[in-house]
Design brief:
Strand order of the largest sheet of chain B: 1-2
Oligomer: heterodimer
Radius of gyration of chain A: 27 Å
Number of helices of chain B: 16
Largest sheet of chain B: 2 strands, antiparallel
Shape of chain A: globular
Number of strands of chain B: 2
Radius of gyration of chain B: 24 Å
Largest sheet of chain A: 2 strands, antiparallel
Helix content of chain B: 55-70%
Strand content of chain A: under 5%
Order of helices and strands of chain A: HHHEEHHHEEHH
Structural class of chain B: mainly alpha
Number of helices of chain A: 8
């Protein structure tokens, strides 16, 4: 009897120990990323279009901060003047393009040469090749930003039926802004790591960065006041020069970069929907009249 | 049923042509005088919708092909070139991309309608089999089309799916080498997928012609499932079916355009906007939604005796489509329509729910719990076709069938129809 009790106690103790270590391991290993919040954007919903002033501010952040490491190879300087974009004037675009040095050539001597950018040029890449990009960034390659805002998403629920409900709800409410939500949350996600979280030198903690289990190679790119915004008549910036505002502006800009025809798409969409609704209405009555004799 | 060509050429040229190639009579008997059951509901508009979608996909695809570059280092950016610099390129691509989803949605509804109303039963078995062949061709076409943008999910989807063929004993590895055009998914794979993606839609069009031909020989089924007995049971295709199909198509287009213009990327995976990288596997490889139930079946198979799990999965996945092909011979009931089959009806809806459930499991990351659910649903899928369907026909007492289609529509008062309604319908409206 005593032996049995001892055995039971041993089994119980073992069970506790096993489950405790399992629990402890899970605690140490799993990083639970913070889920980005659904934000309101000027370009969300059936009638949403880009905010030109916001895109211009976003471009300034790309120019002064992001472009040091991130390419944008599908964009040309001329796109900055496109309708439904930042809509800089042609003169402004020429000036903005000339700020960059681009490689051209070969010239008559067979040599490549540098010259100021022109509106027809694509945005130059910060690194000539992937190896150089890795070398300069501690082994990480800064992703190209051409379609970045469409290449990032997140799923807030992983349990039934919340995940299905969320998917249906997203479809019905035309939720298409996971990308900018994610980017703006990531840029604001450089918080203090939990006390037991291990970070090697050269790494950074980001509470949103699920892909790297909280560890991201990119150091916090934005600080309050780092980019100067246009001033109002009172000499103060029109919008606050804060990390939060910067994050939103650059996320909006990147959404435009990824989906430059959004304004036109929604305008055409409205025309098409009205046309189809009217056609459906007319066809309904045609059908009713044609079939009236048969249904009698 | 068909062939009652009442076509009379109206002028000398038409008469001349008709004596040499009776194409006018063919069109007239197929799309104008063709008798359609008068009780068809809107589920019967999906045949026309599918024809429209095939043409739409071919037309948008031909123009996209003019601007796309099938080369592994250029493909991704050439798609972005279409999105940015080609006139209405964004519209063409979003139409084509979402068109694939809408094509499958319509095809699945069309197939489910056939299952519900027993459209596969004699004399329509060949018609049904041709439909299954079209579905298989659509799957191959859609899969290869998804590879073309050469994003992460394109590349890794191609890797996973082509690798499946290596499970085939003896010849598997050779087949995979031919699919790849080398020893890994790469530029040769992209090239041959592009070539086949351009070819297969025309093969589909050919099989669709056979499908329509078989339909016009056997005639359409209808919601009662009983045969057409007299001309009172039918109305001419034009104008009756034409206006009804057009209305169905416009409503379908409203849904299609909702996706194209307002949420063109919601049905896709964000990872496919990351250029393909052979050195980095995405954390979660999933196919497009229309493959999810099959993907769930593939993943849910365990090792079975001497058959490794991979081969078992491939067999179960293709077997799932084979089950559909065998339905005409697995269903033992003499009654076609589920409307008069009190036992089959609930089982049909359970099957639909099981397929949706499989789709859900296919979309999610694998967990032990989900594996078990996937296995139960897969087992049920097979049980439905191999056990329930043959058994139901033997034990079920069908409800009484109406004497004729017109009786079922008019409640036994078949004479209530005005004499002019089908005597001279073309002059109406």
């Amino acid at each position: 009897m005593k032996r049995l009790r001892l055995l039971l106690a041993a089994v119980a103790a073992l069970g506790c120990a096993v489950s405790f270590t399992a629990f402890a391991q899970e605690e140490g290993a799993t990083f639970v990323p913070k889920i980005p919040e659904r934000q309101s954007w000027s370009f969300a919903g059936p009638f949403g279009i880009y905010d030109t002033a916001q895109l211009q501010r976003g471009y300034k952040i790309y120019r002064e901060v992001c472009s040091n490491c991130h390419s944008m190879e599908d964009m040309h300087f001329r796109n900055l003047a496109d309708p439904g974009g930042p809509e800089f004037t042609e003169g402004q675009v020429q000036a903005l393009a000339a700020e960059f040095k681009v490689t051209d050539g070969p010239d008559d001597n067979g040599k490549m040469f540098k010259r100021p950018g022109r509106p027809a040029d694509p945005f130059p890449k910060p690194f000539p090749n992937v190896q150089m990009a890795k070398l300069a960034n501690g082994g990480g390659v800064p992703p190209d930003m051409s379609v970045l805002a469409k290449a990032r998403s997140y799923e807030p629920y992983d349990w039934f039926p919340a995940d299905v409900g969320y998917a249906i709800w997203s479809m019905l409410t035309q939720y298409q802004t996971q990308g900018p939500d994610y980017i703006s949350a990531l840029l604001q996600g450089y918080t203090k790591p939990p006390p037991d979280f291990k970070i090697e030198p050269g790494q950074n903690y980001n509470e949103v960065f699920a892909a790297g289990n909280g560890i991201i190679a990119m150091p916090p790119p934005l600080q309050d006041g780092v980019v100067e915004y246009p001033k109002g008549p009172d000499g103060k910036p029109v919008v606050p020069e804060t990390v939060q505002q910067y994050s939103r502006d650059v996320a909006a800009f990147l959404m435009w970069v990824a989906e430059p025809k959004l304004d036109q798409r929604k305008q055409n969409g409205l025309e098409v929907m009205i046309f189809l609704l009217v056609a459906a209405g007319l066809m309904y009555f045609v059908k009713k009249k044609v079939w009236a004799a048969v249904h009698a | 049923m068909s062939g009652q060509s009442t076509y009379v050429p109206k002028n000398a040229l038409a008469k001349w042509l008709e004596a040499r190639l009776p194409i006018g009579g063919l069109v007239h008997s197929s799309f104008i005088a063709y008798p359609t059951p008068r009780n068809l509901n809107y589920m019967w508009t999906f045949g026309g919708i599918l024809s429209f979608m095939l043409v739409a996909q071919i037309l948008t695809g031909i123009v996209l092909a003019m601007h796309y570059t099938p080369e592994s280092t250029l493909a991704f950016n050439s798609v972005e070139h279409i999105m940015r610099d080609v006139n209405a390129g964004w519209l063409l691509r979003y139409l084509h991309l979402n068109g694939a989803s809408m094509f499958f949605a319509a095809a699945y509804i069309h197939t489910a309608r056939g299952l519900y109303y027993g459209s596969y039963k004699a004399p329509r078995e060949v018609l049904w089999l041709l439909g299954i062949i079209i579905l298989l061709l659509m799957m191959a076409t859609a899969f290869m089309g998804y590879v073309l943008p050469w994003g992460q999910m394109s590349f890794w989807g191609a890797t996973v799916i082509t690798n499946l063929f290596s499970a085939i004993p003896i010849v598997g590895d050779t087949i995979v080498t031919y699919l790849w055009g080398g020893y890994a998914v790469g530029n040769p794979t992209l090239n041959r997928f592009y070539s086949l993606h351009y070819l297969l839609p025309f093969v589909i069009a050919g099989v669709v012609a056979l499908h329509v031909w078989a339909l016009h020989v056997a005639g359409q089924n209808n919601p009662t499932g009983i045969d057409v007995k007299s001309s009172k049971d039918t109305v001419p295709f034009t104008p009756y079916a034409t206006v009804k199909d057009t209305l169905g198509l416009i409503v379908f287009l409203l849904v299609y355009c909702w996706f194209v213009f307002y949420e063109p990327n919601i049905l896709g995976d964000a990872d496919n906007y990351i250029p393909a990288n052979p050195l980095q596997t995405p954390p979660h490889i999933v196919p497009e939604w229309y493959f999810l139930p099959f993907y769930a079946i593939l993943r849910s198979m365990p090792d079975i005796f001497f058959i490794p799990a991979k081969l078992a999965g491939v067999m179960a996945m293709f077997g799932a489509i084979l089950m559909l092909a065998l339905v005409p011979w697995l269903d033992t009931s003499k009654v076609r329509s589920a409307r008069f089959r009190p036992l089959y009806r609930p089982f049909f809806w359970v099957l639909i729910l099981v397929c949706i459930g499989l789709g859900y499991i296919g979309a999610k990351e694998v967990t032990p719990g989900r594996i078990v659910v996937g296995q139960i649903l897969t087992a049920y899928y097979y049980v439905h076709f191999l056990i329930i369907l043959p058994l139901l026909g033997l034990i079920e007492t069908p409800n009484p069938l109406p004497n004729s289609i017109s009786e079922s529509v008019l409640g036994g008062n078949a004479t209530a129809m005005p004499a002019g309604a089908h005597a001279a319908p073309e002059r109406k409206g």
